[in-house]
């Protein structure tokens, strides 16, 4: 397979070094924390596994998915936060749990392995069933499930990402011959809720709430253009990337690369490439990793000393989308296609 590289921006050797960085932080049991000895959440674990896959570290990626299969709880969920194998928050984040489907489908797009899909199907099915049980009357997802049941509050970023995950789970089922009409119905309601942009907790200071409905495929075409234009000047720091929050001078690698993916998915290749080039100032050439972010006026890495596996993975996924090195480059461009077809037919 071809490793994603962009001439003059990210070489093959640099991309491989970034994959090596993620692998170096992985535990012997396959778990991928934020950094060696740090916290772990399932969403970022999956994102890191996707980064390993596009970097050609297939064995390590499959070890990460194996860890998910072994540690999934009977209800289809995982704890919200772990540290060195210990549960630090036993509640489940619905978006985190859903994301396994995106990772498993991505692995198939890159490798073509149907056997891997079949091995992970029970894990994906339990996870998606858990997630849609948390759907609220509005169609949005309760963002968490704790000891009291479904938390009756929704986040637009989480609901958007989970929508993509349900679509990916449907694609896995299609390949394996498993039809799940209940998932399609849930996706229709969830997509409509995200596009309405009402009834979600106010997290508008976070850039993710701005671009995620586009990245995850719920909003496309002219609506996507309007949404991205609406807060471009709020979040984009010229020449550097994007802020993670509107009211702080913190430019971050992962959010910038996710916006790259959203722009590429909507056909804005030139803007996407410019942002990707700009954010390379966060690369650490010594490790192959990326600093999580930087306080731009102070020129200080923030949080201090932190290079995260999921930041490195976001860079690799953005590079792949920009240069079409693997079949996984399609995963965000095609996001939402399944539920859009369902909407049109309903």
Protein described:
The protein is mainly alpha-helical and 346 residues long. The protein has a single domain, classed as Glycosyltransferase. 54% of the residues lie in helices and 8% in strands. The chain has 16 helices and eleven strands. A hairpin with a 2-residue loop joins strand 5 and strand 6. Helix 1 packs antiparallel against helix 14. The longest helix has 21 residues, at 156-176. The chain is globular, with a radius of gyration of 18 Å. The chain starts with 11 loop residues before the first helix and ends with a helix. It comes from Metallococcus carri. This is Prenyltransferase. InterPro entries: 6-hairpin_glycosidase_sf, 6hp_glycosidase-like_sf.
Overall body shape:
globular
CATH class: Mainly Alpha
Any idea what the CATH architecture is? Alpha/alpha barrel
Mean pLDDT: 96
Taken as a percent bin, the fraction of beta residues is 5-15%
Helix content: 40-55%
Number of strands: 11
**SSE succession:** HEHHEEEHHHEEHHHHHEEEHHEEHHH
CATH third-tier fold name:
Glycosyltransferase
Query: How many DSSP helices?
Result: 16
Structural class: mainly alpha
**Poorly predicted spans:** 340-346
Distance between the termini: 40 Å
Domain count: 1
Give Rg in angstroms. Answer: 18 Å
- Largest sheet data: 3 strands, antiparallel
Strand order of the largest sheet: 1-2-3
């Amino acid at each position: 397979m071809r490793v994603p590289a962009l001439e003059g921006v990210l070489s093959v050797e640099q991309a491989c070094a970034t994959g090596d960085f993620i692998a170096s932080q992985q535990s012997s049991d396959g778990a991928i924390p934020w950094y060696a000895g740090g916290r772990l959440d399932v969403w970022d674990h999956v994102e890191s596994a996707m980064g390993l896959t596009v970097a050609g570290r297939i064995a390590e990626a499959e070890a990460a998915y194996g860890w998910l299969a072994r540690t999934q709880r009977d209800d289809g969920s995982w704890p919200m936060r772990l540290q060195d194998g210990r549960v630090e928050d036993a509640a489940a984040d619905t978006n985190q749990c859903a994301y396994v489907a995106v990772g498993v489908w991505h692995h198939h797009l890159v490798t073509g392995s149907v056997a891997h899909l079949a091995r992970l199907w029970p894990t994906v099915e339990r996870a998606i069933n858990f997630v849609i049980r948390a759907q609220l009357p509005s169609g949005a997802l309760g963002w968490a499930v704790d000891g009291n049941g479904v938390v009756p509050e929704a986040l637009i970023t989480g609901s958007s990402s989970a929508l993509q995950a349900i679509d990916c789970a449907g694609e896995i089922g299609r390949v394996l011959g498993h039809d799940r009409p209940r998932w399609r119905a849930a996706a229709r309601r969830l997509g409509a809720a995200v596009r309405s942009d009402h009834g979600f907790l106010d997290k508008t200071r976070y850039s993710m709430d701005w671009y995620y409905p586009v990245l995850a495929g719920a909003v496309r075409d002219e609506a996507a253009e309007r949404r991205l234009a609406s807060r471009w000047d709020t979040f984009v720091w010229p020449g550097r990337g994007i802020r993670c929050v509107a009211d702080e001078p913190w430019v971050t690698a992962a959010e910038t690369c996710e916006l790259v993916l959203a722009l590429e998915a909507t056909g804005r290749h030139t803007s996407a490439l410019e942002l990707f080039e700009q954010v390379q100032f966060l690369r650490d050439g010594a490790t192959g990793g990326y600093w999580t972010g930087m306080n731009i006026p102070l020129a200080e890495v923030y949080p201090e000393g932190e290079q995260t596996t999921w930041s490195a993975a976001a860079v690799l996924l953005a590079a792949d989308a920009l240069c079409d090195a693997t079949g996984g480059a399609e995963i965000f461009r095609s996001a939402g296609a399944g539920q859009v077809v369902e909407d049109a037919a309903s």
